[in-house]
Design goal:
CATH topology of the largest domain: Glutathione S-transferase Yfyf (Class Pi), Chain A, domain 2
Order of helices and strands: EHEHEEHHHHHH
Bound molecules: glutathione
Distance between the termini: 23 Å
Structural class: alpha+beta
Oligomer: single chain
CATH architecture of the largest domain: Up-down Bundle
Number of domains: 2
Strand order of the largest sheet: 2-1-3-4
Largest sheet: 4 strands, mixed
Number of helices: 8
Strand content: 5-15%
Number of strands: 4
Length: about 220
């Protein structure tokens, strides 16, 4: 298998966590989407040009982080089971995965883009922050009851959530939300996330030193 990704893309981090949790072997293919040459080259292979993208052992191209994780969970019996077999539990995991992507990851991305463009639109920024805080508060309540997001076991929903919280803590006072704060500390001791964080740190250091463009 080959994974086309970028270490600073949160959707890529979500899939990396899953691959490490499953102890799945893959060839890492880092793609710099901000570089027109690499972007065009990548688009020849995958016209929608989004990361992450998995090339399976049979050569099939799979986009969409949640679909990739579903595939590797089905394909590898090793490591953590990321989608519960029990249907009601599985539905919960799927639901929270969708909520996190749509109502946390995407608005965080819009805020980042506004910052990058130095766009002055306090009203829009406040609306996005409000939307994010609404979901964070719901997640905080859920984490009061559960060890991982959807229960005792680590799942797809945690793969989606951890990279978002890791980013959101730079803008939101997550330390004031006790269950989320506890969850992040707990995530920081999880092997798969430690491995992903190492790659984030190396890439961030390279970006700061001017070696690589920001994706
Ligand atoms: N729903 C997709 C979102 C993927 C996505 O938006 N990836 C971003 C990087 S984090 C990207 O490739 N953006 C480049 C573009 O939109 O041109 C998933 O879950 O994988």
């Amino acid at each position: 298998m080959e994974l086309f990704y970028h270490p600073l893309s949160r959707y890529s981090q979500k899939v990396l966590i899953a691959l490490y949790e499953k102890q799945a072997n893959f060839y890492p293919r880092v793609i710099e989407l901000s570089d027109p040459f690499f972007r065009n080259e990548f688009k020849q292979q995958y016209p929608l040009g989004k990361l992450p993208l998995l090339k399976t052992r049979t050569g099939e191209l799979l986009p969409e982080s949640s679909i990739i994780i579903d595939y590797i969970d089905h394909e590898f019996s090793t490591g953590t089971r990321l989608l519960p077999q029990d249907y009601p539990q599985r539905l919960q995991v799927r639901l929270y995965d969708r909520l996190i992507d749509n109502d946390l990851n995407n608005p965080l991305y819009l805020l980042e883009q506004m910052d990058a463009r130095e766009e002055e639109n306090p009203l829009k920024a406040r609306q996005l922050e409000k939307e994010i805080m609404l979901l964070l508060s719901e997640l905080n309540d859920k984490l009061r009851e559960n060890h991982w997001l959807c229960g005792d076991a680590f799942t797809l929903a945690d793969c989606a959530l951890i990279p978002c919280l890791n980013h959101a803590r730079n803008r939101f006072k997550l330390y004031q939300l006790d269950p989320i704060d506890r969850y992040l500390n707990q995530a920081n001791t999880r092997g798969a996330w430690i491995q992903v964080q190492e790659e984030i740190e190396l890439t961030s250091a390279a970006v700061q030193a001017g070696f690589r463009p920001i994706p």
